[in-house]
Amino acid sequence: MKFVVIGGGVIGTSIAWHLAEEGIGQVTLLERDRLGSGTTWHSAGNITWKPLADHDASVMYAFETITRLERDLGLSTGWLQTGRLFLAGSGEVRHGFEGFDKAAQDRGVPARWLSGDEARRLNPLLDPGGLEGIWLNPLSGRVNPADLTAAYATAARRKGAVIRENVTAESLAIVGGRITGVATSLGFIPADCVVLAAGLWSRSMLQPLGIALAQWPCEHFYVIAEVAPRLPRDTPSFVAPHELVYGREEVGRFLVGFFDENAKTLDPASLPNPFSFTLLPPDWEKIAPYFAAATRLFPPLETAPIRNFINGPESFTPDGFPLIGRVADIDGLIVATAMNSSGVTLSAMTGRLVADLVTGAPPRFEAGLYDPSRFADRARDLAWLATGVSSIVSAGYLRHNQ
Protein backbone atom coordinates (compact mmCIF):
# COMPACT_ATOMS: atom_id res chain seq x y z
CA MET A 1 0.00 0.00 0.00
CA LYS A 2 0.99 3.60 -0.53
CA PHE A 3 0.27 6.09 2.25
CA VAL A 4 0.48 9.87 2.05
CA VAL A 5 0.36 12.00 5.20
CA ILE A 6 -0.39 15.69 4.58
CA GLY A 7 1.06 17.97 7.24
CA GLY A 8 4.46 17.95 8.90
CA GLY A 9 3.58 19.13 12.37
CA VAL A 10 3.74 17.10 15.55
CA ILE A 11 0.57 15.20 14.53
CA GLY A 12 1.61 14.35 10.97
CA THR A 13 5.11 13.21 11.92
CA SER A 14 3.74 10.98 14.69
CA ILE A 15 1.32 9.41 12.21
CA ALA A 16 4.10 8.86 9.66
CA TRP A 17 6.21 7.08 12.28
CA HIS A 18 3.41 4.89 13.57
CA LEU A 19 2.40 3.90 10.04
CA ALA A 20 5.99 3.22 8.99
CA GLU A 21 6.50 1.02 12.06
CA GLU A 22 3.66 -1.21 10.91
CA GLY A 23 5.62 -2.11 7.79
CA ILE A 24 2.51 -2.39 5.64
CA GLY A 25 3.50 -0.07 2.83
CA GLN A 26 5.37 3.02 1.68
CA VAL A 27 4.74 6.13 3.77
CA THR A 28 5.30 9.60 2.32
CA LEU A 29 4.81 12.75 4.40
CA LEU A 30 4.27 16.09 2.66
CA GLU A 31 4.98 19.41 4.38
CA ARG A 32 4.43 22.61 2.42
CA ASP A 33 7.19 24.44 4.32
CA ARG A 34 9.43 22.99 7.01
CA LEU A 35 8.52 20.48 9.70
CA GLY A 36 6.69 22.11 12.59
CA SER A 37 6.23 25.42 10.76
CA GLY A 38 2.44 25.67 11.15
CA THR A 39 1.16 25.78 14.73
CA THR A 40 3.44 23.19 16.34
CA TRP A 41 6.38 25.51 16.81
CA HIS A 42 4.57 27.94 19.15
CA SER A 43 3.02 25.25 21.38
CA ALA A 44 3.78 25.50 25.10
CA GLY A 45 4.65 21.78 25.03
CA ASN A 46 2.98 20.77 28.30
CA ILE A 47 1.89 17.18 28.94
CA THR A 48 -0.11 16.41 32.09
CA TRP A 49 -1.88 13.24 33.18
CA LYS A 50 -5.49 13.61 34.28
CA PRO A 51 -7.98 10.78 34.99
CA LEU A 52 -10.31 11.78 32.16
CA ALA A 53 -11.61 9.72 29.26
CA ASP A 54 -9.62 11.64 26.69
CA HIS A 55 -6.44 12.15 28.75
CA ASP A 56 -5.83 9.09 30.90
CA ALA A 57 -4.70 6.44 28.43
CA SER A 58 -3.59 9.04 25.89
CA VAL A 59 -1.17 10.76 28.26
CA MET A 60 0.19 7.49 29.66
CA TYR A 61 0.88 6.44 26.06
CA ALA A 62 2.58 9.81 25.48
CA PHE A 63 4.92 9.09 28.39
CA GLU A 64 5.55 5.60 27.03
CA THR A 65 6.28 7.04 23.60
CA ILE A 66 8.69 9.67 24.91
CA THR A 67 10.57 6.92 26.74
CA ARG A 68 10.79 4.88 23.55
CA LEU A 69 12.03 7.81 21.51
CA GLU A 70 14.63 8.92 24.05
CA ARG A 71 15.83 5.72 25.69
CA ASP A 72 15.34 3.13 22.97
CA LEU A 73 15.98 5.24 19.86
CA GLY A 74 18.37 7.81 21.33
CA LEU A 75 16.33 10.80 20.09
CA SER A 76 15.86 14.01 22.06
CA THR A 77 12.38 15.39 22.77
CA GLY A 78 13.41 17.93 25.39
CA TRP A 79 11.28 16.07 27.95
CA LEU A 80 11.50 17.38 31.50
CA GLN A 81 9.26 16.00 34.23
CA THR A 82 8.47 18.82 36.65
CA GLY A 83 5.09 17.99 38.14
CA ARG A 84 2.24 20.47 38.11
CA LEU A 85 0.59 22.59 40.79
CA PHE A 86 -3.20 22.49 40.49
CA LEU A 87 -4.41 25.72 42.13
CA ALA A 88 -8.00 25.65 43.40
CA GLY A 89 -9.48 29.14 43.37
CA SER A 90 -12.92 27.94 44.48
CA GLY A 91 -14.54 25.13 46.42
CA GLU A 92 -15.95 23.72 43.18
CA VAL A 93 -12.51 23.50 41.61
CA ARG A 94 -11.07 21.92 44.76
CA HIS A 95 -13.84 19.31 44.64
CA GLY A 96 -12.76 18.45 41.11
CA PHE A 97 -9.15 18.14 42.21
CA GLU A 98 -10.22 15.84 45.03
CA GLY A 99 -11.61 13.50 42.39
CA PHE A 100 -8.28 13.64 40.56
CA ASP A 101 -6.45 12.91 43.81
CA LYS A 102 -8.60 9.88 44.59
CA ALA A 103 -7.97 8.47 41.12
CA ALA A 104 -4.26 9.11 41.55
CA GLN A 105 -4.12 7.36 44.92
CA ASP A 106 -6.09 4.40 43.55
CA ARG A 107 -3.44 4.00 40.83
CA GLY A 108 -0.45 4.47 43.08
CA VAL A 109 0.45 7.88 41.67
CA PRO A 110 2.30 9.81 44.41
CA ALA A 111 0.21 12.96 44.10
CA ARG A 112 -0.40 15.01 47.25
CA TRP A 113 -1.94 18.14 48.72
CA LEU A 114 0.49 20.89 49.65
CA SER A 115 0.52 23.56 52.31
CA GLY A 116 1.01 27.13 51.18
CA ASP A 117 4.59 27.13 52.43
CA GLU A 118 5.40 23.92 50.55
CA ALA A 119 3.96 25.37 47.37
CA ARG A 120 5.97 28.58 47.73
CA ARG A 121 9.16 26.58 48.12
CA LEU A 122 8.38 24.98 44.77
CA ASN A 123 7.51 28.32 43.14
CA PRO A 124 8.65 31.39 45.12
CA LEU A 125 6.48 33.66 42.96
CA LEU A 126 3.25 32.13 44.24
CA ASP A 127 1.01 33.81 46.81
CA PRO A 128 -1.12 30.94 48.17
CA GLY A 129 -3.39 33.21 50.19
CA GLY A 130 -7.01 32.89 49.17
CA LEU A 131 -6.60 29.54 47.47
CA GLU A 132 -8.90 26.70 48.51
CA GLY A 133 -6.20 24.10 47.98
CA ILE A 134 -3.03 23.21 46.09
CA TRP A 135 -2.60 19.74 44.62
CA LEU A 136 0.71 18.49 43.24
CA ASN A 137 0.43 16.09 40.31
CA PRO A 138 3.87 14.54 39.65
CA LEU A 139 2.87 13.07 36.26
CA SER A 140 3.43 16.28 34.35
CA GLY A 141 6.17 17.95 32.38
CA ARG A 142 6.98 19.44 29.04
CA VAL A 143 8.75 18.71 25.79
CA ASN A 144 10.28 20.96 23.18
CA PRO A 145 7.68 20.74 20.37
CA ALA A 146 10.32 21.17 17.65
CA ASP A 147 12.45 18.41 19.17
CA LEU A 148 9.48 16.06 19.51
CA THR A 149 8.50 16.68 15.88
CA ALA A 150 12.07 16.06 14.74
CA ALA A 151 12.22 12.87 16.82
CA TYR A 152 9.03 11.53 15.25
CA ALA A 153 10.36 12.40 11.79
CA THR A 154 13.73 10.77 12.38
CA ALA A 155 12.09 7.62 13.75
CA ALA A 156 9.80 7.55 10.70
CA ARG A 157 12.73 7.86 8.29
CA ARG A 158 14.54 5.03 10.04
CA LYS A 159 11.53 2.85 9.30
CA GLY A 160 11.59 3.79 5.64
CA ALA A 161 9.22 6.75 5.47
CA VAL A 162 9.94 9.50 2.95
CA ILE A 163 9.54 13.05 4.24
CA ARG A 164 9.29 15.83 1.70
CA GLU A 165 9.46 19.42 2.90
CA ASN A 166 8.57 22.43 0.73
CA VAL A 167 5.99 20.37 -1.18
CA THR A 168 2.41 21.64 -1.21
CA ALA A 169 -0.54 19.26 -1.33
CA GLU A 170 -2.90 21.03 -3.72
CA SER A 171 -5.88 18.69 -4.00
CA LEU A 172 -7.06 15.14 -3.40
CA ALA A 173 -7.94 12.81 -6.26
CA ILE A 174 -11.08 10.70 -5.81
CA VAL A 175 -12.25 8.06 -8.30
CA GLY A 176 -15.38 6.03 -7.69
CA GLY A 177 -15.57 7.09 -4.05
CA ARG A 178 -12.00 6.05 -3.35
CA ILE A 179 -8.84 8.08 -2.80
CA THR A 180 -6.29 7.61 -5.57
CA GLY A 181 -3.65 10.17 -4.75
CA VAL A 182 -2.63 13.76 -4.13
CA ALA A 183 -1.91 16.51 -6.65
CA THR A 184 1.14 18.40 -5.36
CA SER A 185 3.45 21.22 -6.38
CA LEU A 186 5.83 18.52 -7.62
CA GLY A 187 3.22 16.56 -9.51
CA PHE A 188 0.79 13.75 -8.78
CA ILE A 189 1.57 11.25 -6.00
CA PRO A 190 -0.54 8.06 -6.10
CA ALA A 191 -1.89 6.78 -2.81
CA ASP A 192 -4.14 4.04 -1.47
CA CYS A 193 -4.64 5.96 1.78
CA VAL A 194 -4.28 9.65 2.58
CA VAL A 195 -4.16 10.99 6.13
CA LEU A 196 -4.98 14.69 6.32
CA ALA A 197 -3.18 16.25 9.31
CA ALA A 198 -2.96 19.83 8.08
CA GLY A 199 -4.24 21.53 11.22
CA LEU A 200 -6.30 24.65 10.67
CA TRP A 201 -5.95 24.22 6.89
CA SER A 202 -7.61 20.78 6.91
CA ARG A 203 -11.15 22.13 6.52
CA SER A 204 -10.36 24.12 3.38
CA MET A 205 -8.51 21.14 1.91
CA LEU A 206 -11.71 19.06 2.01
CA GLN A 207 -14.20 21.74 0.98
CA PRO A 208 -13.80 21.06 -2.77
CA LEU A 209 -14.95 17.49 -2.05
CA GLY A 210 -18.13 18.71 -0.38
CA ILE A 211 -16.86 17.65 3.06
CA ALA A 212 -17.21 20.01 6.03
CA LEU A 213 -15.02 19.45 9.09
CA ALA A 214 -16.37 20.82 12.38
CA GLN A 215 -13.25 22.83 13.20
CA TRP A 216 -12.47 26.53 13.27
CA PRO A 217 -9.44 28.47 14.53
CA CYS A 218 -9.26 30.87 17.44
CA GLU A 219 -6.55 33.27 18.48
CA HIS A 220 -4.70 31.69 21.39
CA PHE A 221 -2.38 33.57 23.74
CA TYR A 222 0.51 33.24 26.13
CA VAL A 223 3.19 35.63 27.37
CA ILE A 224 6.70 35.16 28.72
CA ALA A 225 7.69 37.45 31.60
CA GLU A 226 11.14 38.32 33.00
CA VAL A 227 10.54 37.52 36.66
CA ALA A 228 12.62 37.90 39.80
CA PRO A 229 13.71 35.65 41.24
CA ARG A 230 14.40 33.65 38.09
CA LEU A 231 12.79 30.25 38.20
CA PRO A 232 14.78 27.01 38.37
CA ARG A 233 14.36 24.78 35.34
CA ASP A 234 12.57 22.08 37.35
CA THR A 235 9.91 24.44 38.78
CA PRO A 236 6.53 22.70 38.59
CA SER A 237 4.13 24.08 36.01
CA PHE A 238 0.75 25.30 37.24
CA VAL A 239 -2.88 25.34 36.23
CA ALA A 240 -5.56 27.57 37.75
CA PRO A 241 -8.84 26.56 36.06
CA HIS A 242 -11.04 29.04 37.91
CA GLU A 243 -8.89 31.86 36.56
CA LEU A 244 -8.49 30.20 33.12
CA VAL A 245 -4.70 30.47 33.27
CA TYR A 246 -1.75 28.09 33.23
CA GLY A 247 2.02 28.46 33.12
CA ARG A 248 5.51 27.11 33.55
CA GLU A 249 9.17 28.05 33.71
CA GLU A 250 10.79 29.06 30.41
CA VAL A 251 14.59 29.53 30.55
CA GLY A 252 14.30 31.14 33.99
CA ARG A 253 11.39 33.28 32.88
CA PHE A 254 7.69 32.66 33.49
CA LEU A 255 5.36 31.55 30.70
CA VAL A 256 1.71 32.33 31.45
CA GLY A 257 -1.07 31.26 29.08
CA PHE A 258 -4.81 31.89 28.84
CA PHE A 259 -7.96 30.00 27.81
CA ASP A 260 -10.17 33.06 27.49
CA GLU A 261 -13.92 33.32 27.35
CA ASN A 262 -15.54 34.35 24.06
CA ALA A 263 -12.33 33.48 22.24
CA LYS A 264 -11.57 35.43 19.07
CA THR A 265 -12.23 33.35 15.98
CA LEU A 266 -10.60 33.99 12.63
CA ASP A 267 -11.13 32.86 9.06
CA PRO A 268 -8.15 30.75 7.89
CA ALA A 269 -8.49 32.39 4.48
CA SER A 270 -7.58 35.72 6.11
CA LEU A 271 -4.12 34.48 7.09
CA PRO A 272 -1.16 35.47 4.93
CA ASN A 273 0.21 32.84 2.58
CA PRO A 274 2.56 31.36 3.50
CA PHE A 275 1.78 31.35 7.22
CA SER A 276 4.91 29.60 8.47
CA PHE A 277 6.66 30.38 11.77
CA THR A 278 4.29 33.35 11.90
CA LEU A 279 2.28 34.92 14.71
CA LEU A 280 -0.75 37.18 14.95
CA PRO A 281 -0.60 40.68 16.49
CA PRO A 282 -0.70 40.95 20.30
CA ASP A 283 -4.05 41.73 21.92
CA TRP A 284 -3.44 43.08 25.40
CA GLU A 285 -7.04 44.13 25.89
CA LYS A 286 -8.27 40.56 25.39
CA ILE A 287 -5.95 38.99 27.94
CA ALA A 288 -6.01 41.83 30.49
CA PRO A 289 -8.52 40.28 32.94
CA TYR A 290 -6.78 36.91 32.83
CA PHE A 291 -3.34 38.41 33.27
CA ALA A 292 -4.70 40.38 36.23
CA ALA A 293 -5.92 37.11 37.75
CA ALA A 294 -2.46 35.62 37.20
CA THR A 295 -0.84 38.57 38.99
CA ARG A 296 -3.03 37.94 42.03
CA LEU A 297 -1.67 34.40 42.16
CA PHE A 298 1.89 35.44 41.29
CA PRO A 299 2.34 39.08 42.44
CA PRO A 300 5.83 39.59 40.90
CA LEU A 301 4.14 39.40 37.48
CA GLU A 302 2.65 42.84 38.09
CA THR A 303 5.98 44.57 37.52
CA ALA A 304 7.75 41.92 35.43
CA PRO A 305 8.73 43.01 31.90
CA ILE A 306 6.97 40.99 29.20
CA ARG A 307 9.59 39.69 26.78
CA ASN A 308 7.29 37.81 24.39
CA PHE A 309 3.62 37.93 23.49
CA ILE A 310 2.61 34.79 21.58
CA ASN A 311 -0.67 34.94 19.65
CA GLY A 312 -0.95 31.87 17.45
CA PRO A 313 -4.07 30.36 15.88
CA GLU A 314 -5.27 26.99 17.14
CA SER A 315 -8.14 24.87 15.76
CA PHE A 316 -10.98 23.90 18.08
CA THR A 317 -14.17 21.86 17.76
CA PRO A 318 -17.56 22.68 19.38
CA ASP A 319 -17.21 19.83 21.91
CA GLY A 320 -13.49 20.17 22.65
CA PHE A 321 -12.49 16.78 21.22
CA PRO A 322 -10.33 16.43 18.10
CA LEU A 323 -11.36 15.00 14.75
CA ILE A 324 -9.62 11.67 14.13
CA GLY A 325 -10.95 8.92 11.92
CA ARG A 326 -12.16 7.83 8.52
CA VAL A 327 -14.11 10.20 6.33
CA ALA A 328 -17.48 8.67 5.46
CA ASP A 329 -18.12 7.83 1.81
CA ILE A 330 -14.48 8.14 0.71
CA ASP A 331 -12.46 4.96 1.06
CA GLY A 332 -8.87 5.54 2.05
CA LEU A 333 -9.30 9.05 3.49
CA ILE A 334 -8.55 9.68 7.16
CA VAL A 335 -8.39 12.98 9.04
CA ALA A 336 -6.41 13.84 12.17
CA THR A 337 -6.95 17.48 13.00
CA ALA A 338 -8.46 20.08 15.37
CA MET A 339 -6.49 19.18 18.49
CA ASN A 340 -8.01 21.94 20.64
CA SER A 341 -4.57 23.22 21.67
CA SER A 342 -3.52 19.74 22.83
CA GLY A 343 -1.58 18.60 19.78
CA VAL A 344 1.65 17.81 21.62
CA THR A 345 -0.24 15.94 24.35
CA LEU A 346 -2.35 13.94 21.88
CA SER A 347 0.25 13.40 19.16
CA ALA A 348 1.35 9.93 20.26
CA MET A 349 -2.24 8.74 20.76
CA THR A 350 -3.25 10.11 17.37
CA GLY A 351 -0.45 8.29 15.59
CA ARG A 352 -1.33 5.03 17.30
CA LEU A 353 -5.06 5.40 16.66
CA VAL A 354 -4.57 6.12 12.95
CA ALA A 355 -2.27 3.09 12.62
CA ASP A 356 -4.88 0.92 14.35
CA LEU A 357 -7.61 2.17 12.03
CA VAL A 358 -5.47 1.44 8.97
CA THR A 359 -4.41 -2.04 10.03
CA GLY A 360 -7.78 -3.05 11.46
CA ALA A 361 -6.26 -3.71 14.89
CA PRO A 362 -8.55 -3.22 17.90
CA PRO A 363 -8.12 0.50 18.67
CA ARG A 364 -6.04 1.13 21.76
CA PHE A 365 -8.05 4.30 22.36
CA GLU A 366 -11.75 5.18 22.27
CA ALA A 367 -12.16 6.05 18.59
CA GLY A 368 -15.80 7.08 19.03
CA LEU A 369 -14.79 10.19 21.00
CA TYR A 370 -13.05 11.57 17.93
CA ASP A 371 -15.30 10.43 15.07
CA PRO A 372 -15.10 13.28 12.52
CA SER A 373 -18.69 12.67 11.38
CA ARG A 374 -20.23 13.21 14.83
CA PHE A 375 -21.42 16.74 14.01
CA ALA A 376 -23.10 15.70 10.74
CA ASP A 377 -24.42 18.63 8.66
CA ARG A 378 -24.07 21.14 11.48
CA ALA A 379 -20.41 21.39 10.48
CA ARG A 380 -21.53 23.29 7.36
CA ASP A 381 -23.05 26.10 9.42
CA LEU A 382 -20.19 28.56 9.90
CA ALA A 383 -22.12 30.77 12.32
CA TRP A 384 -22.91 27.79 14.56
CA LEU A 385 -19.35 26.51 14.25
CA ALA A 386 -17.67 29.81 15.10
CA THR A 387 -19.96 30.35 18.10
CA GLY A 388 -19.30 26.84 19.34
CA VAL A 389 -15.53 27.01 19.17
CA SER A 390 -15.45 30.51 20.65
CA SER A 391 -17.18 29.24 23.79
CA ILE A 392 -15.41 25.86 24.05
CA VAL A 393 -11.97 27.41 24.56
CA SER A 394 -12.79 28.35 28.16
CA ALA A 395 -15.58 25.83 28.80
CA GLY A 396 -13.47 22.92 27.62
CA TYR A 397 -10.55 24.11 29.71
CA LEU A 398 -12.68 24.17 32.85
CA ARG A 399 -14.10 20.75 32.05
CA HIS A 400 -10.68 19.18 31.52
CA ASN A 401 -9.23 20.63 34.71
CA GLN A 402 -11.95 19.93 37.29
Overview of this structure, please?
The structure is a single chain. This protein is an alpha+beta fold. It folds into two domains: 205 residues, FAD/NAD(P)-binding domain (3-Layer(bba) Sandwich), CATH 3.50.50; 159 residues, D-Amino Acid Oxidase, subunit A, domain 2 (D-Amino Acid Oxidase, Chain A, domain 2, 2-Layer Sandwich), CATH 3.30.9.10. Helices cover 30% and strands 26% of the residues. The protein is built from nine helices and 20 strands. An eight-stranded mixed sheet has the order 6-7-5-15-16-17-14-18. Strands 9-2-1-13-20-19 form a six-stranded mixed sheet, covered by helices on one side. A three-stranded antiparallel sheet has the order 3-8-4, with no helix packed on it. The longest helix is centred in the C-terminal third of the chain and has 19 residues. It is globular.
